[in-house]
Amino acid sequence: MTVEEQIKGTVESNKVVLFMKGTPQFPQCGFSSRAVQILEACGASFEAVNVLSDMDIREGIKRYSNWPTIPQVYIDGEFVGGSDILLSMYQNGDLQNMLNPSN
Amino acid sequence: MPTPEQVKNWIEAGLHDSSAEVVGDGRHFEAVVVCAEFSGKIMLEQHRMVYTGLGDKMEVIHALSLRTFTPEQWASHG
After folding, report:
1. Residue A10 C-alpha from the chain's centroid
2. Which chain B residue is nearest to residue A32, measuring alpha carbons?
3. How many CB pairs under 8 A join A and B?
4. What is the pTM of this model?
5. Nearest 5 degrees, angle CA A18-CA A24-CA A29?
6. Residues of A numbered 40-99 whose beta carbons fall under 8 angstroms of chain B's beta carbons: which are they?
7. Of the candidates A11, A8, A17, A13, which has an alpha carbon nearest to the alpha carbon of residue A44?
8. How far, in Å, CA of A100 to CA of B37, rounded?
9. What is the β-pairing status of strands A16-20 and A72-75?
10. A contacts of B30 (beta carbons < 8 Å)
11. pLDDT at residue number B62
C-alpha cells in the first residue's frame, strides 16, 4: 500500500484525524499542542497520527494536502487546515458546527 | 536562519501583487499578507497560495503563522 493510500484510508475511516508531531499526551511542537487543545475544547474525539514516528507519512501528508506544515486536521475526509485555521474556525464557531452538525 | 525581512521578500516574490508584514525570531514567524487575489477565496485557499508561493523556502522556515486579508478587508481592519 502506498503512503497515499494509507493516508486516504485513515482520513476516510475516521471522522476527525489530526496529523501531529508527537502524541496528544506528549505533543512535540507548540502548534500541534494547540491543535490538540482546540479539538479537546470542542469535546471532539479524534484519531491522532504521530508523523515523527513515520517519515514517509511526515512527507506524504504534505503532498497529499499540498500543505507544507504540520499539524494538519481532517474532518469527514477533508483537509481543514493547520493550527492557524483551526484556531480561527474555533473562534468563529465553524469548527463546532463541522464537528457536531446535529445541534 | 532567515530574517523577517527575507521572509517578507520571499512571500511578496512568490505571490503576485501582495504585501507582507513579518515578525519572527528566525524559527517562528508571523506574517500579515494583503493580496487582491485573495478575494472570493476561503482562508484555507488564501494560506495555501502563500505557502505555494514560498515553495521550498518552507524547508528553512520552521513555523509560519499567517493572517490573510484582501486590500478591502485590510482597509476596514483599521
Report:
1. 11
2. B63
3. 28
4. 0.90
5. 80
6. 66-69, 79-82, 84-85, 88
7. A17
8. 33
9. antiparallel
10. none
11. 84
* CB pair distance less than 8 Å for B47 and A79: no
CA B23 to each of CA A22, A70, B17, B31, B44: distance values in angstroms, whole numbers, following the listed order = 27, 20, 20, 7, 21
Q: Which of A68, A59, A51 is nearest to B58 (CA)?
A: A68
Nearest to A84 among B52, B58, B65 (CB): B65
Residue A62: CA count within 13 A, CB half-sphere: 14
Extract the residue ranges of chain B whose pLDDT is less than 70.
78
Over the Cα atoms of chain A, what is R_g? 13
Q: Which domains does chain B have, with CATH numbers?
A: 4-77 (3.30.300.90)
* Non-local CB neighbours of A79 within 8 Å, separated by 6+ positions: A64, A65, A67, A72, A73, B44
- Residues of chain A with confidence (pLDDT) below 70: 102-103
